[in-house]
Amino acid sequence: MADPHFNAEDKARILEGVDQILDGMLSMGPNVRAFEEEFAAMVGTRHAIAMNACTSTLEAALQYYNVAGREVIVPAETFIATGMAVHLSGGIPVFAEVGDSLCLDLADVEARVTERTAGVIVVHMAGNIAPEIQAFREMCDARGIFLIEDAAHSPGARIGDRQAGSFGHAGCFSFFSTKVLAAGEGGMLTTDDDAIATFARSFQHRGRDMTAKTEQYLMPGRNVRMTEMAALVGRTQLARLHEYLDRRRMVAAVYARDLAGQNGIRLVMPASLENSSFWKVPLLLDPEIDRVAVTEYMMGQGVAVDWAYQPALHLQPVFRAIGGYSEGTLPRTEALLSRHLCLPCHPRISEDDAIYVAQTLVEAVRTAARTSA
């Protein structure tokens, strides 16, 4: 499903950079500063603050808004870190329905906003910018609550001239090994808000007062620093981002072409290829299609597929225990996730590979349909 790749030129750049790192700073040095500057320029925000993980960037944004004891609305379809960051920051995650895009549903969120609501986290699922993202920002501004973009999957995705990570009050990106930009570990917070950036800089340094001449700490903190090695690898990947996106969008376009009109299959595609970084390509099977049978057939033909993420967050044991959630709490999301499947999408998939994946899926669905008939 993921295949981080470094060509000979990239490896040479990294090896040369490692020599320089070993003669200098190992953490929070020139590569981290350069990575922040280059990433901010890509996203089009005034600030980018590097940390050890996307989870830490989420926590920084949430703690800036002092969510302790307050509610934060989160999609039920996302990685555990999105909801966990709220809980670990003292907030109360309120899980909301996703729509057919597998992204947060605006109408459902509006119905869940109360006087206790601090803000909303929108997740750009599978790299697709949430279709209602601009309406989310308008709604949040009108109600005086924050909007955070969990953009872990979506570096380089854009709507018009606006990049993922620039629509909300803060954007949060991941550089984990399976992501579009793979540095092994790491995260980046983006924002145009000077106050958020100042807080995040302090958070980046264990709560230190970054303006004081001596070592003083303003708040409790912990280690969320990025290493120079991770920043070097991240910078190397960032320099290739447009190439990676071109390849991913080619793969998605082949899937869209070859699966158009196929019975039992509906791809979850953005309005335009540029609206997504295509971390994966999700689809929805018709309710009568046996997803387990389709998955097993695909795997048997050498095609890796998965169900990201399942179960939904409100049905994960930790949130069942914390919030008392159970099956049927979010019926639309639960129904959609019972039918969804993700196709592989990464830069090393050739056009012929993508054609094979699409053909194999069609065969898998036909086989599953015959078996269940």
What is the secondary structure topology, with strand pairs?
Elements: H1 8-22, H2 30-43, E1 47-51, H3 54-64, E2 71-75, H4 80-88, E3 92-96, H5 106-112, E4 117-123, H6 133-143, E5 146-150, E6 158-159, E7 162-163, E8 170-174, E9 187-191, H7 194-204, H8 228-239, H9 241-259, E10 265-267, E11 281-285, H10 291-300, H11 317-323, H12 331-337, E12 340-343, H13 351-372
Parallel strand pairs: 2-3, 2-4, 4-5, 5-8
Antiparallel strand pairs: 1-9, 6-7, 8-9, 10-11, 11-12
- What is the ordering of alpha helices and beta strands? HHEHEHEHEHEEEEEHHHEEHHHEH
The CATH C-level name of the largest domain is Alpha Beta
General form: globular
How does CATH name the architecture of the largest domain? 3-Layer(aba) Sandwich
User: What does the main sheet amount to?
Assistant: 7 strands, mixed
> What would you call the structural class?
alpha/beta
Describe this structure as you would to a colleague.
With 373 residues, this protein is of the alpha/beta class. It has 2 domains: 8-239, Type I PLP-dependent aspartate aminotransferase-like (Major domain) (Aspartate Aminotransferase, domain 2, 3-Layer(aba) Sandwich), CATH 3.40.640.10; 241-372, Aspartate Aminotransferase, domain 1 (Alpha-Beta Complex). The protein has helices at 8-22, 30-43, 54-64, 80-88, 106-112, 133-143, 194-204, 228-239, 241-259, 291-300, 317-323, 331-337, 351-372; strands spanning 47-51, 71-75, 92-96, 117-123, 146-150, 158-159, 162-163, 170-174, 187-191, 265-267, 281-285, 340-343. The strands form 3 sheets. The protein has a 7-stranded mixed beta sheet with strand order 1-9-8-5-4-2-3, with helices on both faces. A 3-stranded antiparallel beta sheet has the order 10-11-12, with helices on one face. The protein is globular, with a radius of gyration of 21 Å. The mean pLDDT is 95.
